[in-house]
Specification:
It is globular, with a radius of gyration of 17 Å. The chain has 93 residues and is an all-alpha fold. The protein has one domain. The protein has helices spanning 6-17, 19-22, 28-47, 51-63, 69-72, 87-92. It is 63% helix and 0% strand.
């Protein structure tokens, strides 16, 4: 295990450089929601998952009534076959 946190600091650099933008997020609750969304997106990228595909699939599962949080976490994400690939690839299959 690395003893440094350089990877984390590099990841934070983007947000620190644009901190003036975050002054106008509107409200504390909005800032917390934005931070939660960015945490999920960053976790997906770190795990090599397409964040958009993860979000689409997770929202579909929530709407369908999924209640088990462990199934919905990015660490356990397994895209459905219908969600993988491009639309052209799915049509060709």
């Amino acid at each position: 295990m690395d003893l440094t946190n350089n990877e984390v600091e590099r990841g934070l650099r983007t947000w620190v450089l644009s901190r003036k933008t975050w002054l106008f997020v509107g409200h504390d609750v909005s800032a917390q929601r934005a931070a939660a969304a960015l945490t999920v997106i960053t976790t997906c990228r770190k795990l090599g998952i397409d964040p958009r595909q993860y979000m689409r699939d997770t929202l579909r599962r929530l709407i369908a009534g999924e209640k088990d949080l462990s199934v919905l976490l990015p660490e356990n994400f397994k895209p459905h076959l219908a969600d993988s690939g491009t639309a052209a690839e799915r049509c060709a299959a």
